[in-house]
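Ticket #4471: structure export looks truncated?
Reporter: QA, pipeline team
Priority: medium

Steps to reproduce: submit the single chain below to the structure queue and open the exported record.
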Amino acid sequence: MECLFHGDMQLSDKALNAYIHCIRGEEHLLHREGGKVFLENTFISSLLKRDGDPKVFLPMNIEDFHWYLAVLNAKKSELKGLERQIKLAAKHKELYQGKWSNLDVASWPVIEKITTQMQTDGVSCGLWMINYMEYWTGSSLSDNVTQDDITMFRFKLPAILWDSRLNTKKGHQNLDHNMDEDGESSSDVQIIDTPLTSTNTQELMFVLCTYIMGIDNDKYLKKHWIQSTKPYPISLSLQKLKDILDVNKPMDTDCFNMVVRMIACNDVLFLLEDKFHYMDLQFCSITKFGRDPRLRAKPDINMLAKLLECWPDMEYDVSDCKQILLPFSFMGHFTLYVLNMDTRSIYIMDSMPIPSWFKGDHPSMHYIHNIHYIANNMNAAMELANPTWKDDIYMWRRLVPTWVPRILNWDLSGFLVINFMHDWNGIRLPCICTNGNDLRTKFLVELLKYKDNESKDNIPEEIQEIIRHIR
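Actual output as written to the record:
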């Protein structure tokens, strides 16, 4: 099952066979246009020793590199290939002659039914193949499947296999749909009742994601699952939580600010000798960075100074903090600026590589406009929050560390910056995961585990039980 939990891995034949075994158990999928079909698994050494089915669906593999589906139609003496490179040997015996009138399979015509490229990555061919097997009617696909659908299907597949009535390892839990207050099912995915039999963190996380991705009730998606009113109100709807798992969407501002709040109010940090002050995206919001300067009003310095106050239930003064962690966002691209008060240094942590067209003498010059903007506003705010402040941040040394992980996915920058803030020890970052699915899933789980969540009662008990078991 491990291959199902990593978005950059191809599916193993065991995982493919498990799903094929599940769809074999659905009677309606064994009857397609032209009659009954047989859904072969990947072990096809005796693939043509079947005498009762005029059609055979064959999973094919090219040198452990690529999966595709071939459909043999004995009634029409026709071999339908859903991809190129189909070559079959013609040594077939013991086939029922009434339905297999022509045993010379090598002479059957090859008809390509799908000629346009549908797969856009390098690892999901197995998922495409089993979807073809499920949705091929005999002449066309019964459903319009996209790469996004396939990516989400990877999330669902572990839960489908685990939840299958054919799964003998599951036990005998009673399954039921989660119902909302109007008696409507909020999801087409079933969740096991407590107590849970699994304690595998990855398995539980994927069951959780499967449940959330399966919810399509508009009214239910508007419910607030997470809420906090200190130091200012933030509410996260189920739709926003669902969007976290959407690989085509960047970090949401409210979700980001909520997690910063969770980091900043962590009791463990209060015990540390070197205090850090964590800021959220309120700085960008108040200063209105990115707007035309001619249309941008002068920021309220009192509001900026308020951002330098200690977080609720945390007792410290910004003048006592060794470092200030300031996240910056523009058009969905997130960067972290760490202001080190002791060394008068600015660490610039950007997960996106500096573009090749940049010709500056020092990498920090790529960020000079942002630094100038941050320095002007932070200097004014610091003078108000700390009367002893007499420095100019713009004149500080600027560092662009080479050990910051780099990726090319703009939409993941917010998830990485949150990890930078959480894992920063004042000197450098540890090794940080850059896998998109893992980053998004971990972020969602951390939000749902928020101990001071004021809307916890809106989260179904089944989900709360799963969260309690995730370590």
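Status: closed, not a bug. The export was complete when the record was re-opened. Leaving a note from the reviewer for reference: The first strand starts at residue 31 and ends at 32.
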